[in-house]
Each structure stands twice: as structure tokens, then as C-alpha cells.
């Protein structure tokens, strides 16, 4: 069902209006309203099955809502060629990562994003592209792995390569699905520091980072959205949203949240 009074904001990066996703009798997302502006960096949190990945799929233009509307870069999904939108969106997710061939050189995994293919195959890439790919790998702490094959990397190293790949096309919207999952403590802290520096860079794109854990939110994130069973529990400025009360409601248990510097920590009470 169309939402008749939906005014697309041409300046917004992403708009969801009453966005609902239904599969059979299950509501994956229920009437979600959400706007992401150019200079915002969002953390999306919620327990398993809350609908976080579904939200990212809408944001990546890889799924349409069953009802309600989605606009990306001021263009309504359904009225725009998604193949024109997708190169403007950088996505790092486990589903995408599974499609990366283990035998590919790391630098090629990154550089091939600019050609919308996974793996280098036989394309000849320009020196500038290769230089950009190497610089991105260095920025995320894996520059020295550029000439290894992807299959030989640890899980944490692969995550960093995936982020570099997502940034290769210089996207206007960066979507990160659990970037710190599977990392050891040192690796996680190093990645969060790098993502935090990236998030405060004025040149960085709008960001949406999905996670289960408040500890995995890098510094520099400006906003947060909490989901539970497909519905928004709270959204807005990160300090207003990540309260003990809101987190407890989203995760369905009594939690206490502490903020230290620009990081958040939660535990059950
Ligand atoms: N095609 C489908 N048919 C029925 N249910 C589905 C379908 N796809 C997803 N779901 C269900 O929708 C819910 C939301 O899924 P989603 O992957 O968006 O959650 P999530 O918050 O990303 O979860 P997680 O943190 O576990 O990755 C889950 O309960 C999932 O089992």
C-alpha cells in the first residue's frame, strides 16, 4: 500500500516511511519510519531476529518493502533503477563475504568492487585503482596483506578487507553489518579505533553500522536506532537512545549501560 503523504527529501541519504516487510505470516519489519542524513553515522542495535539485516537490505536497495516506502538519495525504490543506486552504496556483510573466492588476491578483492564484480577475473585495473585499494587496506590495518590470497586470512583480517572493499567506489552511504563480529579483543579495539577515526572524517559517507553489542559501536557514531521484533524501540541522538531503559526494552532483560568517553558498555543487572 502506498503512503500518499510521503515527501521525499532530496537531501536525505535514506528515508523509510511506514516501511513494512512481511514474509508469509511473519512481520520482519513493522511500520518503520527512519531518516538518515548525509552527515549522520548510525548504529542499529537489537537482539537476534530483530530485523536489523532486513533494514540493511532495504538501505542497500537489495529488497523492497512489502508496504510503505523507501527512498535512497532522494529516489523512491520502485521508481528508480536500483542498478544505478547500488554503486553509490558500500556494503560489508557476511552474505557478501561468502561470495569472495578464497584464491583471489586481497588487493583484487578490493579493487574489483569498482567493477561490481567479486574477484579480479581477467580485468586489467588501472594503477590508480590499485593505489586506492592499497591505501584503503592500510587505513584499516591490513595493508601488508594486499598480496596474500583472501582464503589465507583470519576472520578478523577478512572483515577489514571487506570494509576496504565497501569503500572502494567512494560510496555516499556505507553499510556495515557487524564489522567487529568474530574479532579478538585486540583486533576489535583496533578496528573500532580506525572506524572511529573514519567516522569523524568530514569526507566520510553517511554510515549505518549494525551490531548486537553496544561495546562494538565505534566512537564517532552520532545516532542510534534500537529494534525489537521488527519495531523501533527508540531512535535519535546516540546519547539519548542508548540508555539502560531503552536497551532493556530492546533486549528484553534488565540492563545497565555506561558511557565512557565515546564508548558504551552494557551488562545485565
Ligand atoms: N524469508 C523469510 N521468511 C520468514 N522469516 C524470515 C525470512 N527472512 C528472515 N526471516 C525472519 O525475520 C526475522 C528478522 O530477520 P533479520 O535477519 O532481519 O534479523 P537480524 O536482526 O538481522 O538478526 P541477527 O542479529 O540474528 O542477524 C528473523 O526472525 C528471521 O528468522
Structure notes:
- It is a single chain.
- The mean pLDDT is 90.
- A hairpin with a 2-residue loop joins strand 11 (255-260) and strand 12.
- This protein has a single domain (14-268), classed as Rossmann fold, CATH 3.40.50.300.
- The N and C termini lie far apart (43 Å).
- The chain is an alpha/beta fold and 269 residues long.
- The longest helix is centred in the C-terminal third of the chain and has 15 residues, at 185-199.
- Helices cover 28% and strands 28% of the residues.
- The radius of gyration is 18 Å and the shape is globular.
- Bound molecules: adenosine-5'-triphosphate.
Topology of this protein?
Blueprint: E1 14-23, E2 26-36, E3 41-45, H1 52-59, E4 67-72, E5 75-76, H2 82-85, E6 89-92, H3 94-97, H4 106-111, H5 127-139, H6 155-167, E7 173-177, H7 185-199, E8 206-211, E9 223-228, E10 231-237, H8 238-241, H9 244-251, E11 255-260, E12 263-268
Summarize the model shown.
Pfam families: ABC_tran (PF00005). By secondary structure, the chain is α/β, with parallel strands linked by helices.
Count of discrete domains:
1
Q: What does the largest sheet look like?
A: 6 strands, mixed
Structural class: alpha/beta
Q: What is the CA-atom radius of gyration, in angstroms?
A: 18 Å
Question: Can you say what the CATH homologous superfamily is?
Answer: P-loop containing nucleotide triphosphate hydrolases
Total helical segments: 9
Choose one word for the global shape: globular
Defining traits:
single chain; 269 residues; alpha/beta; Rossmann fold; 6-stranded mixed sheet; 4-stranded antiparallel sheet; 28% helix; globular; binds adenosine-5'-triphosphate
